[in-house]
Design goal:
The protein has about 140 residues and is α+β, with helices and mostly antiparallel strands. The chain has 6 helices and 6 strands; from the N terminus they run αααββββββααα. The strands form 3 sheets. The protein has a two-stranded antiparallel ribbon with strand order 1-4. Strands 2-3 form a two-stranded antiparallel ribbon. A two-stranded antiparallel sheet has the order 5-6.
């Protein structure tokens, strides 16, 4: 008759339980890594569409704070602050993105988000891999 013995199964079960409870700091760092990639892509896409009269709007693109939502956590990357004469930079970005009467749209945000999606996930994956290595699981 065959006899089966296993050593270390309890340690593996604890390690898997640790992974199920991913710390908020790791989640936040993953989102920020994705946000930095998307920020760079949006600025580069804006330059490609020649959206640079003063440079204030492209310079204002940055990741916001990580927010807790009902579905987990989220991070928005958008033009923040004032552009000039009291107009929000987000409004200027919106007008460039969708256009208005007499101004054709220049969808630099959508293009950047679509093109950088894979790179953003890779950046978050790198943060997660570092977390796994710190736990000795990779």
């Amino acid at each position: 008759m065959a006899n089966l013995s296993v050593d270390g199964l309890d340690g593996l079960a604890l390690s898997l339980a640790d992974l199920a409870e991913l710390p908020d700091a790791v989640l936040d760092e993953m989102l920020l890594a994705e946000g930095r990639v998307i920020q760079a892509a949006q600025k580069q896409s804006g330059e490609a569409y020649h959206i640079r009269r003063t440079g204030k709007m492209l310079a204002a693109i940055a990741p916001a704070k990580v927010r807790k939502t009902s579905g987990g956590r989220s991070l928005s990357v958008y033009a923040q602050g004032q552009h000039g004469r009291g107009k929000p930079s987000a409004m200027v970005a919106f007008l460039n993105e969708y256009g208005r009467k007499g101004q054709s749209p220049r969808p630099f945000i959508r293009d950047a988000n679509e093109q950088s999606a894979g790179k953003a996930v890779d950046a978050a994956e790198a943060v997660y891999d570092n977390y796994l290595q710190s736990k000795g699981l990779k």
